[in-house]
Amino acid sequence: MMVVKFGTPVLRQKGARIGAVTPAIKQLIADMIETMYAYKGIGLAAQQVGVAAQLTVLDVRGITDRPSSLEMEGKAVEVDDFMPMVLLNPQITPLGSPTLGPEGCLSFPEIYADVERPELIEVRAMDGNGENIQFRCGGLLARAIQHEADHLNGILFIDRMAREIKEEIRPELDALQEETKRANQEA
Ligand code: ZN
Questions:
Q1: Cα distances (Å, whole numbers) of residue 173 to 117, 125, 180
Q2: What is the model's pLDDT at position 137?
Q3: pLDDT at res. 187
Q4: Which positions of the chain have pLDDT values less than 50?
């Protein structure tokens, strides 16, 4: 699948809640995981492949210099054992204090900037098998899940940047948006 870029309207759409994991949803999950790996991303939201739905896939194993933590039922577990991770209708509760960290986004190629987000979160969601899951996580995984959960509500990482940081990258953002609009018109 193609990842759509900033300037494509679907990125601003709130995703529809997913009621059940149908064969069509299973296929979408498989296609999204494949696309995430093809683009070397650590997370991908349905909006980024043109579908406004509450579905995201993640895999933080590709980044080894930024640690993640994961706790299931009060016990620390191996992050790698739960990758790739599939989250449907995720609900995030922030637990830790906000920390600043670098972020990128497959819909904003070559644009990176610091974003402040809670360091630790609790997540409730449905997994790729339709089971309800609940866990706590921190570090890179917590940041990635918050970034993706935002996508599902039509929120982009530029919305979370401090004003002065966003102003700094404004020319790149404007250029990307223009380029996307032009490409979408031609398509
Ligand atoms: Zn993103």
A1: 21, 32, 11
A2: 98
A3: 79
A4: none
Q: Looking at the 3D structure of the chain, how many domains does it have?
A: 1
Residue 148 is among the residues annotated as catalytic for this protein: yes
> 151 CA distance to ligand 1 centroid (A)?
7
- The CA 156 to ligand 1 mean position distance, Å, reads 7
> Which is catalytic among the residues 119, 148, 168, 172?
148
Q: Which pTM value belongs to this model?
A: 0.97
CA 37 – ligand 1 centroid, Å = 14
Residue 62 lies in a domain: yes
* Domain assignment of residue 103, yes or no: yes
Does some domain include residue 83? yes
Whether residue 63 lies inside any domain: the answer is yes
Count other C-beta atoms under 10 Å from residue 164's C-beta.
Answer: 7
Distance (Å, whole) CA 38 – CA 172: 24
At 168, which CATH number?
Answer: 3.90.45.10
183 CA → ligand 1 middle, Å: 20
Domain coverage including residue 175 = 9-186
